[in-house]
Amino acid sequence: MENRTEEFQELRPMLFSIAYRILGSVGEAEDAVQEAWLRFAGSPAEIRSPKAFLSATVTRISIDVLRSARVRREEYVGPWFPEPLLADPYEDPVRSAELADSVSMAALLLLERLSPLERAVFVLREVFDFGFPEVAAAVGRSEAACRQLAVRARRHMAEGRPRFEADRRGRDELAARFFDALQEGDLAGLQDLLAADVSLVGDGGGKAPQLARAVLGAQHVARLLAAVFPVLARIEVTCERHEVNGQPGAIFRDRHGKVLQTFSLDILDGRVQAIRLVLNPDKLGHMGPVADAWSISEELKRARRPLD
Protein backbone atom coordinates (compact mmCIF):
# COMPACT_ATOMS: atom_id res chain seq x y z
CA MET A 1 0.00 0.00 0.00
CA GLU A 2 2.87 2.36 0.79
CA ASN A 3 4.22 2.08 -2.75
CA ARG A 4 0.78 2.76 -4.21
CA THR A 5 0.41 5.85 -2.03
CA GLU A 6 3.72 7.24 -3.27
CA GLU A 7 2.89 6.42 -6.88
CA PHE A 8 -0.50 8.10 -6.57
CA GLN A 9 0.88 11.23 -4.94
CA GLU A 10 3.44 11.58 -7.71
CA LEU A 11 0.73 11.36 -10.37
CA ARG A 12 -1.91 13.38 -8.52
CA PRO A 13 -1.10 16.79 -10.13
CA MET A 14 -1.51 15.31 -13.62
CA LEU A 15 -4.69 13.49 -12.66
CA PHE A 16 -6.30 16.65 -11.28
CA SER A 17 -5.26 18.64 -14.34
CA ILE A 18 -6.82 16.06 -16.68
CA ALA A 19 -10.05 15.95 -14.66
CA TYR A 20 -10.32 19.74 -14.39
CA ARG A 21 -9.92 20.25 -18.13
CA ILE A 22 -12.61 17.67 -18.81
CA LEU A 23 -15.00 18.95 -16.14
CA GLY A 24 -14.30 22.67 -15.72
CA SER A 25 -14.95 22.24 -11.99
CA VAL A 26 -12.36 22.24 -9.21
CA GLY A 27 -14.61 20.39 -6.77
CA GLU A 28 -15.71 17.75 -9.26
CA ALA A 29 -12.12 17.25 -10.43
CA GLU A 30 -10.94 16.73 -6.85
CA ASP A 31 -13.76 14.22 -6.28
CA ALA A 32 -12.80 12.36 -9.48
CA VAL A 33 -9.18 12.14 -8.37
CA GLN A 34 -10.21 10.89 -4.93
CA GLU A 35 -12.44 8.21 -6.46
CA ALA A 36 -9.57 7.15 -8.76
CA TRP A 37 -7.36 6.76 -5.68
CA LEU A 38 -9.92 4.58 -3.92
CA ARG A 39 -10.15 2.30 -6.96
CA PHE A 40 -6.35 2.20 -7.27
CA ALA A 41 -5.82 1.46 -3.58
CA GLY A 42 -8.59 -1.13 -3.50
CA SER A 43 -7.63 -3.04 -6.63
CA PRO A 44 -6.45 -6.57 -5.77
CA ALA A 45 -4.77 -6.97 -9.17
CA GLU A 46 -1.14 -6.19 -9.89
CA ILE A 47 -0.98 -2.85 -11.65
CA ARG A 48 2.00 -2.69 -13.96
CA SER A 49 1.53 0.95 -14.98
CA PRO A 50 0.02 3.18 -12.28
CA LYS A 51 0.00 6.08 -14.74
CA ALA A 52 -2.05 4.14 -17.29
CA PHE A 53 -4.43 2.76 -14.66
CA LEU A 54 -4.99 6.08 -12.87
CA SER A 55 -5.24 8.27 -15.97
CA ALA A 56 -7.77 5.86 -17.50
CA THR A 57 -9.74 5.68 -14.25
CA VAL A 58 -9.90 9.44 -13.67
CA THR A 59 -10.80 10.02 -17.33
CA ARG A 60 -13.70 7.57 -17.28
CA ILE A 61 -15.00 8.96 -13.99
CA SER A 62 -14.77 12.49 -15.42
CA ILE A 63 -16.64 11.51 -18.59
CA ASP A 64 -19.49 10.05 -16.50
CA VAL A 65 -19.65 13.15 -14.28
CA LEU A 66 -19.59 15.47 -17.29
CA ARG A 67 -22.52 13.69 -18.92
CA SER A 68 -24.75 14.44 -15.92
CA ALA A 69 -23.25 17.91 -15.41
CA ARG A 70 -24.17 18.96 -18.94
CA VAL A 71 -27.85 18.52 -18.16
CA ARG A 72 -27.50 20.85 -15.16
CA ARG A 73 -25.57 23.40 -17.21
CA GLU A 74 -28.39 23.57 -19.76
CA GLU A 75 -30.64 24.83 -16.94
CA TYR A 76 -28.05 27.22 -15.53
CA VAL A 77 -29.15 30.81 -14.87
CA GLY A 78 -27.18 33.18 -17.11
CA PRO A 79 -23.76 32.54 -18.64
CA TRP A 80 -21.88 29.50 -17.33
CA PHE A 81 -18.14 29.77 -16.65
CA PRO A 82 -15.77 27.14 -15.26
CA GLU A 83 -14.82 27.30 -11.59
CA PRO A 84 -11.81 29.62 -11.30
CA LEU A 85 -8.49 27.80 -10.99
CA LEU A 86 -5.76 29.79 -9.27
CA ALA A 87 -2.91 27.35 -9.83
CA ASP A 88 -2.58 24.32 -12.09
CA PRO A 89 -0.67 21.68 -10.07
CA TYR A 90 0.69 20.01 -13.20
CA GLU A 91 3.88 21.62 -14.43
CA ASP A 92 6.00 21.11 -17.51
CA PRO A 93 8.55 23.93 -17.95
CA VAL A 94 8.93 23.17 -21.65
CA ARG A 95 5.19 23.60 -22.29
CA SER A 96 4.20 26.03 -19.53
CA ALA A 97 2.64 28.66 -21.84
CA GLU A 98 0.72 26.02 -23.81
CA LEU A 99 -0.60 24.42 -20.62
CA ALA A 100 -1.65 27.82 -19.23
CA ASP A 101 -3.57 28.64 -22.41
CA SER A 102 -5.27 25.22 -22.42
CA VAL A 103 -6.73 25.87 -18.97
CA SER A 104 -7.92 29.40 -19.74
CA MET A 105 -11.59 30.30 -19.41
CA ALA A 106 -11.78 30.82 -23.18
CA ALA A 107 -10.33 27.38 -23.95
CA LEU A 108 -12.53 25.61 -21.42
CA LEU A 109 -15.63 27.33 -22.78
CA LEU A 110 -14.65 26.16 -26.25
CA LEU A 111 -14.26 22.61 -24.92
CA GLU A 112 -17.90 22.82 -23.79
CA ARG A 113 -18.89 22.51 -27.47
CA LEU A 114 -17.45 18.98 -27.63
CA SER A 115 -19.13 15.77 -26.60
CA PRO A 116 -17.73 14.24 -23.37
CA LEU A 117 -15.79 11.63 -25.36
CA GLU A 118 -14.40 14.20 -27.79
CA ARG A 119 -13.41 16.41 -24.90
CA ALA A 120 -11.60 13.60 -23.09
CA VAL A 121 -9.77 12.50 -26.23
CA PHE A 122 -8.75 16.07 -27.04
CA VAL A 123 -7.46 16.71 -23.51
CA LEU A 124 -5.44 13.50 -23.34
CA ARG A 125 -4.05 13.72 -26.87
CA GLU A 126 -3.59 17.44 -27.52
CA VAL A 127 -2.90 18.78 -24.03
CA PHE A 128 -1.11 15.89 -22.30
CA ASP A 129 0.39 14.29 -25.42
CA PHE A 130 -0.84 10.75 -24.73
CA GLY A 131 -0.33 8.29 -27.55
CA PHE A 132 -3.43 6.89 -29.22
CA PRO A 133 -3.00 3.45 -27.56
CA GLU A 134 -3.09 5.20 -24.16
CA VAL A 135 -6.04 7.38 -25.19
CA ALA A 136 -7.96 4.34 -26.45
CA ALA A 137 -7.35 2.46 -23.21
CA ALA A 138 -8.42 5.48 -21.16
CA VAL A 139 -11.75 6.11 -22.90
CA GLY A 140 -12.57 2.48 -23.73
CA ARG A 141 -12.69 2.91 -27.50
CA SER A 142 -10.60 1.56 -30.37
CA GLU A 143 -7.60 3.51 -31.61
CA ALA A 144 -9.37 4.10 -34.92
CA ALA A 145 -12.41 5.51 -33.14
CA CYS A 146 -10.17 7.76 -31.00
CA ARG A 147 -8.43 9.08 -34.09
CA GLN A 148 -11.81 10.03 -35.55
CA LEU A 149 -12.86 11.65 -32.27
CA ALA A 150 -9.59 13.59 -32.22
CA VAL A 151 -10.09 14.83 -35.77
CA ARG A 152 -13.61 16.05 -34.97
CA ALA A 153 -12.47 17.67 -31.74
CA ARG A 154 -9.56 19.46 -33.43
CA ARG A 155 -11.88 20.74 -36.14
CA HIS A 156 -14.37 22.14 -33.62
CA MET A 157 -11.61 23.68 -31.53
CA ALA A 158 -9.87 25.20 -34.55
CA GLU A 159 -13.06 27.01 -35.54
CA GLY A 160 -12.95 29.18 -32.43
CA ARG A 161 -9.55 28.53 -30.85
CA PRO A 162 -8.70 31.46 -28.58
CA ARG A 163 -5.48 33.36 -29.16
CA PHE A 164 -3.45 34.90 -26.37
CA GLU A 165 -0.62 37.41 -26.08
CA ALA A 166 2.61 35.58 -26.86
CA ASP A 167 4.69 38.20 -25.00
CA ARG A 168 4.00 37.13 -21.42
CA ARG A 169 5.95 39.99 -19.90
CA GLY A 170 4.10 42.55 -22.01
CA ARG A 171 0.81 40.86 -21.15
CA ASP A 172 1.47 41.08 -17.43
CA GLU A 173 2.56 44.72 -17.66
CA LEU A 174 -0.65 45.60 -19.51
CA ALA A 175 -2.70 43.74 -16.88
CA ALA A 176 -0.96 45.70 -14.13
CA ARG A 177 -1.84 48.97 -15.87
CA PHE A 178 -5.43 47.78 -16.27
CA PHE A 179 -5.88 47.02 -12.57
CA ASP A 180 -4.21 50.31 -11.58
CA ALA A 181 -6.63 52.21 -13.83
CA LEU A 182 -9.52 50.12 -12.51
CA GLN A 183 -8.86 50.98 -8.90
CA GLU A 184 -8.31 54.66 -9.71
CA GLY A 185 -11.49 54.88 -11.76
CA ASP A 186 -9.41 56.19 -14.67
CA LEU A 187 -11.95 56.19 -17.49
CA ALA A 188 -9.55 57.31 -20.22
CA GLY A 189 -6.85 54.94 -19.03
CA LEU A 190 -9.22 51.99 -19.03
CA GLN A 191 -10.64 52.78 -22.44
CA ASP A 192 -7.14 53.00 -23.89
CA LEU A 193 -6.36 49.46 -22.66
CA LEU A 194 -9.54 47.84 -23.97
CA ALA A 195 -10.07 46.39 -27.44
CA ALA A 196 -12.77 48.19 -29.41
CA ASP A 197 -15.02 45.10 -29.27
CA VAL A 198 -14.15 44.05 -25.71
CA SER A 199 -16.80 42.10 -23.78
CA LEU A 200 -17.48 42.00 -20.05
CA VAL A 201 -19.55 39.03 -18.86
CA GLY A 202 -20.41 37.82 -15.36
CA ASP A 203 -21.41 34.41 -14.01
CA GLY A 204 -23.61 34.68 -10.93
CA GLY A 205 -25.68 31.58 -11.57
CA GLY A 206 -28.73 33.29 -10.08
CA LYS A 207 -27.02 33.15 -6.69
CA ALA A 208 -25.26 36.53 -6.76
CA PRO A 209 -25.93 39.93 -8.37
CA GLN A 210 -24.91 39.80 -12.00
CA LEU A 211 -25.16 41.81 -15.18
CA ALA A 212 -28.44 41.43 -17.02
CA ARG A 213 -26.45 40.94 -20.22
CA ALA A 214 -22.92 41.20 -21.51
CA VAL A 215 -21.47 44.71 -21.74
CA LEU A 216 -19.84 45.25 -25.13
CA GLY A 217 -17.47 47.86 -26.52
CA ALA A 218 -14.57 49.77 -24.99
CA GLN A 219 -16.58 52.88 -24.14
CA HIS A 220 -19.41 51.03 -22.35
CA VAL A 221 -17.11 48.65 -20.48
CA ALA A 222 -14.74 51.44 -19.39
CA ARG A 223 -17.64 53.57 -18.13
CA LEU A 224 -19.07 50.74 -16.06
CA LEU A 225 -15.73 49.78 -14.55
CA ALA A 226 -14.70 53.36 -13.81
CA ALA A 227 -18.02 54.04 -12.10
CA VAL A 228 -18.21 50.93 -9.93
CA PHE A 229 -14.77 49.91 -8.76
CA PRO A 230 -13.62 53.08 -6.97
CA VAL A 231 -16.85 52.84 -4.95
CA LEU A 232 -16.07 49.21 -4.13
CA ALA A 233 -12.76 50.42 -2.71
CA ARG A 234 -14.65 52.91 -0.54
CA ILE A 235 -16.60 50.06 1.04
CA GLU A 236 -13.31 48.23 1.63
CA VAL A 237 -13.49 45.70 -1.18
CA THR A 238 -9.89 44.92 -2.10
CA CYS A 239 -8.39 43.74 -5.37
CA GLU A 240 -5.73 41.04 -5.07
CA ARG A 241 -3.96 40.45 -8.37
CA HIS A 242 -3.62 36.78 -9.17
CA GLU A 243 -3.47 34.56 -12.21
CA VAL A 244 -6.85 32.97 -12.88
CA ASN A 245 -6.94 29.95 -15.18
CA GLY A 246 -3.44 30.69 -16.38
CA GLN A 247 -4.28 34.25 -17.47
CA PRO A 248 -3.95 37.64 -15.74
CA GLY A 249 -6.69 38.23 -13.22
CA ALA A 250 -7.60 39.12 -9.68
CA ILE A 251 -9.54 38.04 -6.62
CA PHE A 252 -11.81 40.62 -5.01
CA ARG A 253 -12.37 40.32 -1.25
CA ASP A 254 -14.67 42.04 1.19
CA ARG A 255 -13.44 43.91 4.28
CA HIS A 256 -13.21 40.60 6.15
CA GLY A 257 -11.05 38.96 3.51
CA LYS A 258 -13.84 36.78 2.14
CA VAL A 259 -13.91 36.06 -1.61
CA LEU A 260 -16.41 38.19 -3.51
CA GLN A 261 -15.52 37.42 -7.13
CA THR A 262 -12.72 36.66 -9.56
CA PHE A 263 -11.69 38.58 -12.64
CA SER A 264 -9.89 37.02 -15.60
CA LEU A 265 -8.59 38.84 -18.65
CA ASP A 266 -7.99 37.70 -22.22
CA ILE A 267 -5.20 39.85 -23.66
CA LEU A 268 -4.11 39.96 -27.30
CA ASP A 269 -2.41 42.55 -29.52
CA GLY A 270 -1.77 44.84 -26.57
CA ARG A 271 -5.42 45.14 -25.56
CA VAL A 272 -7.86 43.46 -23.17
CA GLN A 273 -10.20 41.46 -25.41
CA ALA A 274 -12.51 39.94 -22.80
CA ILE A 275 -13.21 40.25 -19.08
CA ARG A 276 -14.92 37.41 -17.22
CA LEU A 277 -16.28 37.73 -13.70
CA VAL A 278 -17.23 34.73 -11.56
CA LEU A 279 -19.54 35.68 -8.67
CA ASN A 280 -21.48 32.45 -8.13
CA PRO A 281 -20.63 31.54 -4.52
CA ASP A 282 -20.83 27.84 -5.36
CA LYS A 283 -17.78 28.30 -7.60
CA LEU A 284 -15.68 30.28 -5.13
CA GLY A 285 -15.70 28.13 -1.97
CA HIS A 286 -12.50 26.26 -2.84
CA MET A 287 -10.63 29.58 -2.46
CA GLY A 288 -11.80 30.18 1.11
CA PRO A 289 -14.78 31.74 2.92
CA VAL A 290 -17.16 33.44 0.47
CA ALA A 291 -18.54 36.96 0.88
CA ASP A 292 -22.24 37.83 0.88
CA ALA A 293 -22.48 39.37 -2.59
CA TRP A 294 -26.09 40.50 -2.09
CA SER A 295 -25.15 42.45 1.04
CA ILE A 296 -22.22 44.08 -0.71
CA SER A 297 -24.45 44.97 -3.66
CA GLU A 298 -26.80 46.84 -1.32
CA GLU A 299 -23.86 48.57 0.36
CA LEU A 300 -22.53 49.55 -3.05
CA LYS A 301 -25.88 51.11 -4.01
CA ARG A 302 -25.93 53.17 -0.82
CA ALA A 303 -22.33 54.31 -1.35
CA ARG A 304 -23.05 55.39 -4.95
CA ARG A 305 -26.15 57.46 -4.20
CA PRO A 306 -24.34 60.71 -3.43
CA LEU A 307 -22.55 60.36 -6.78
CA ASP A 308 -25.72 59.77 -8.87
Automatic annotation (TrEMBL):
Keywords: DNA-directed RNA polymerase, Sigma factor, Transcription, Transcription regulation. InterPro entries: ECF_Sigma-70_Domain, NTF2-like_dom_sf, RNA_pol_sigma-70_dom, RNA_pol_sigma-70_ECF, RNA_pol_sigma70_r2, RNA_pol_sigma70_r4_t2, RNA_pol_sigma_r2, RNA_pol_sigma_r3/r4-like. One of its GO terms (cellular component) is DNA-directed RNA polymerase complex. It comes from the Bacteria. Pfam families: Sigma70_r2, Sigma70_r4_2, SnoaL_2. GO terms for biological process: DNA-templated transcription initiation. Residues 106-157 form the RNA polymerase sigma factor 70 region 4 type domain. PANTHER family: ECF RNA POLYMERASE SIGMA FACTOR SIGJ, SIGMA 19 FACTOR. Belongs to the sigma-70 factor family. ECF subfamily. NCBIfam families: PRK09636.1, sigma70-ECF, SigX4. This is DNA-directed RNA polymerase sigma-70 factor. It comes from Streptomyces fuscichromogenes.
